[in-house]
What we know:
4-phosphoerythronate dehydrogenase activity; 11 helices; NAD(P)-bd_dom_sf; Rossmann fold; NAD; alpha/beta; 7-stranded parallel beta sheet
Amino acid sequence: MRRLAVFGCGYTARRFVALHGADFDAVDVTTRSPEGVARLGAEGLNAHLFDGGPASPALADAVKAATHVLVSAPPDAEGDPTLRGAGEALQAANGLAWVGYLSTIGVYADADGGWVDETTEPQADSDRGARRIAVEREWLAFGRERGVPVQIFRLAGIYGPGRNQIENLKAGTAKRLVKPGQVFNRIHVDDIAAALAAGIARPDAGPIVNVADDEPAPPQDVVAYAAGLLGIAPPPETAFETADITPMARSFYSSNKRVANRVLRDELGVRLAYPTYREGMAALATGA
């Protein structure tokens, strides 16, 4: 019996469950709020309340019976909430065959627009990235200790249905910020789901997998392309230095790198459905 436990059933994990949940005999998911439990339960999922505290008896039993665990919950100030609250149950999961941890390409330092890959030593230049590096190491150590394959999926900027520049343009919130030489890496959520499914099929690959498309690109180009698909004029360009944006948004521009996806392509054998933002935006514009 194949049983999946998902910690943190947000946008990406929920999409994976929607596309690949039928590959499992049972799926258990967690969320941090009672409202989330009700919403996910209404979608037919076996949802558990979990915020990093001790796992409930029902969640602990589900984890002990799990063959596959997907961890999407981010670290907090105290470390990894999944290992902290469900570590005992994970240690008792005798049938565990795979753990996937969703991390971020934010673990790589600024490369001044150069390329990084899975052999690049992570040297985060932010507190968020440093937390991720620490938790990645905890999960890899867990895998070595248990003799269980653990794969770390370092995700680029995620877009897909309901979360993309097409929607931002329609809502009037899209901006074309220009910082010369700046590029961002991105990945369609369905390609993340395909990467996770491939990891489950090939658990010995990696263990580090960069999940990014084939073309890092300036963010203003993506907005302009999306506007063209809608047949509207793009918003005017705004210089990054003078843009009115949040400190969090500004911090993303402090790191400039191109992320290669060799392991995803060569070891996991994933052929991206959306190899660049063009294919992804075109599909989203037509409702695909």
